[in-house]
């Protein structure tokens, strides 16, 4: 662990702590707002049995819904982040390991979850050659309970992503852009509309004969949002 990483993790924790304790009833993250909206619409399971496949230290997703869970399993590949995640969310089952390998090879700790979060990295391929959530999303559908909610990160605007992480459109990994075209099956995968990116996920849900009760795009910032899918097994 280097000092930059240490400071980043502590800063993330402090900012989430302040947001959760001081502003809880005034300003919400996209995840908090969505959880409240799903609850109001009777679309959120009473008690969440949750799976968070790309946990980091829990500050940008898990902390927003941990209070709704009766079981929370978090996977994080980096040992330092996994240790911090356990400290941030003591009741969670934090597994330090490769969630992509786990979901493909039956190594998850349960067979069914009613709440799944896929907040994968941007830009580079995972060890199995997949990008973003494209590799894990179809497998995640094999683990849903009778009714479930899935949150999946969608990178909406790569021009804005470049502003955050540097580089240029020309320098973007060509295989990544092709993977986006293959998955989303839309022309504009650089700065498309949030709702248009939902179709790629909806196609896979339909191919698995899973009933889609509701889908929604919700913005997180200028470059990223969540696709939210409320699904039911036949
Ligand atoms: C975008 S961050 C997730 C942020 C997180 N949802 C939060 O609440 O803060 C992606 C995380 O996934 C982790 N990661 C990358 N590949 C992984 C893998 N194959 N299995 C598990 N975790 C992985 C990275 O170390 C990183 O911490």
Distance between the termini: 46 Å
Structural class: alpha/beta
Radius of gyration: 17 Å
CATH architecture call: 3-Layer(aba) Sandwich
Note the beta-strand portion: 15-25%
- What is the CATH class name? Alpha Beta
What do you see in this structure?
The protein contains 9 helices and 7 strands. With 234 residues, it is an alpha/beta fold. The chain has a single domain (3-233), classed as 3-Layer(aba) Sandwich (Rossmann fold), CATH 3.40.50. Strands 3-2-1-4-5-7-6 form a 7-stranded mixed sheet, with helices on both faces. Strand 2 (69-76), helix 4 (79-88) and strand 3 form a beta-alpha-beta unit. It is globular and about 45 Å long. The mean pLDDT is 93. The structure holds S-adenosylmethionine (SAM). The site of S-adenosylmethionine has 20 residues, from strand 2 and helix 5.
Can you tag this structure with a few keywords?
alpha/beta; 234 residues; 7 strands; 9 helices; seven-stranded mixed beta sheet; binds S-adenosylmethionine; single chain; Rossmann fold; 24% strand; 38% helix
Provide a compact summary of the structure.
The protein has 234 residues and is α/β, with parallel strands linked by helices.
Present the secondary structure layout.
Layout: H1 3-22, H2 30-40, E1 48-52, H3 62-65, E2 69-76, H4 79-88, E3 93-96, H5 99-104, E4 113-118, H6 136-140, E5 144-155, H7 158-165, H8 174-184, H9 194-207, E6 210-221, E7 224-233
Parallel strand pairs: 1-2, 1-4, 2-3, 4-5
Antiparallel strand pairs: 5-7, 6-7
This protein binds S-adenosylmethionine.
């Amino acid at each position: 662990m280097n000092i930059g990483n240490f400071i980043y993790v502590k800063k993330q924790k402090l900012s989430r702590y302040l947001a959760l304790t001081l502003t809880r009833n005034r300003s919400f993250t996209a995840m908090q707002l969505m959880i409240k909206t799903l609850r109001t619409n009777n679309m959120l399971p009473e008690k969440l049995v949750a799976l968070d496949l790309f946990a980091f230290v829990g500050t940008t997703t898990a902390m927003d819904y941990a209070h709704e869970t009766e079981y929370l399993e978090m996977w994080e590949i980096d040992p330092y982040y996994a240790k911090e995640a356990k400290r941030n969310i003591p009741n969670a089952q934090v597994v330090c390991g490769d969630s992509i390998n786990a979901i493909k090879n039956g190594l998850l700790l349960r067979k069914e979850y009613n709440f799944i979060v896929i907040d994968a990295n941007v830009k580079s391929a995972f060890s199995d050659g997949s990008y973003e959530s494209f590799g894990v999303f179809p497998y995640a559908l094999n683990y849903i309970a009778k009714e479930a909610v899935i949150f999946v990160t969608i990178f909406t605007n790569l021009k804005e992503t470049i502003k955050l992480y540097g580089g240029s459109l020309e320098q973007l990994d060509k295989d990544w852009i092709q993977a986006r075209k293959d998955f989303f099956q839309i022309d504009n995968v650089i700065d498309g509309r949030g709702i248009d990116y939902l179709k790629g996920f909806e196609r896979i849900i339909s191919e698995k004969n899973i009933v889609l009760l509701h889908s929604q795009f919700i913005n997180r910032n200028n470059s990223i949002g969540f696709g939210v899918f409320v699904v039911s097994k036949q």
